[in-house]
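Consider the tokenized backbone below.
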């Protein structure tokens, strides 16, 4: 199970799963053939001038690049952090948790809408970032009040894990194979079922515990480490999907989809680190 943001969009999906050639790949092949024909009409001087010219940007080619994804991910992350800071600092204390709940609900709805849209909507994706920022601002304030310093610890842990996953993926030491994907699918389904059972026990007040009976004490630590590992594996899948999109020459607008997918995974990872560190400090 990969990130649904990427899995629900055919252009980021593994062509082997589609059962037919990717349309973007077909278009790329056509472009290459056309370029080969056109090149025959240039002389040596013209070709040398073209070779020494600056690389074409995504605006000129109309295709997604890594720079596009980085810029839009940074912009979206800035929106999340800005709204989180406003919720934490500006909003009255009594309103922070209600705002966090509202932000979580709106973020969930917008997350589902953006995940299943075939063509990305920058406005809806930015609204998602704002809603998630409000949610994270309120929930981070609550955790910080209970365990001072925990937010900085969770942020550092999230950024460090992100950097480690990126380095491992770029080095080729971690590759997305069918076995890796199958393992992640089974692990994600198991974790979702486990979390649902824990929530039901909390609703019926069975077992107690700050985060539910199945997320407390030694078991909570083990589950927390497992959840962080799942989030890290999901990041690897996200990087692979983005790499596939760039190599297939997808439209530049899908850099918004890639940025959205990365933010979804990072928010999940941050929340898991918050909970894990809180259990450890208890």
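A designed sequence for it:
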């Amino acid at each position: 199970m990969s990130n649904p943001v990427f899995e629900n969009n055919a252009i980021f999906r593994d062509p082997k799963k589609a059962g037919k050639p990717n349309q973007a790949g077909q278009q790329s092949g056509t472009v290459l053939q056309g370029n080969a024909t056109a090149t025959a009409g240039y002389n040596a001087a013209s070709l040398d001038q073209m070779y020494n010219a600056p690389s074409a940007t995504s605006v000129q080619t109309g295709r997604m690049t890594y720079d596009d994804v980085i810029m839009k991910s940074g912009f979206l992350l800035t929106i999340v952090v800005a709204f989180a800071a406003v919720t934490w600092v500006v909003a009255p204390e009594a309103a922070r948790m209600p705002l966090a709940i509202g932000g979580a609900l709106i973020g969930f709805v917008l997350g589902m809408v953006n995940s299943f849209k075939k063509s990305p909507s920058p406005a809806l994706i930015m609204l998602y970032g704002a809603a998630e920022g409000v949610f994270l601002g309120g929930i981070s304030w609550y955790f910080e009040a209970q365990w001072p310093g925990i937010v900085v610890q969770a942020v550092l842990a999230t950024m460090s894990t992100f950097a480690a996953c990126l380095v491992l993926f770029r080095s080729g030491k971690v590759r997305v194979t069918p076995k890796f994907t199958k393992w992640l699918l089974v692990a994600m389904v198991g974790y979702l079922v486990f979390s649902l059972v824990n929530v039901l026990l909390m609703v019926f007040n069975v077992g107690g515990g700050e985060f539910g009976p199945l997320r407390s004490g030694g078991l909570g630590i083990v589950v927390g480490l497992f959840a962080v590992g799942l989030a890290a594996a999901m990041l690897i899948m996200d990087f692979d999907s983005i790499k596939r999109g760039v190599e297939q020459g997808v439209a530049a607008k899908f850099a918004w989809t890639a940025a959205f997918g990365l933010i979804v995974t990072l928010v999940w990872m941050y929340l898991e680190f918050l909970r894990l560190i809180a259990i450890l400090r208890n």
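Residues 94 and 138 are 10 Å apart (CA to CA).
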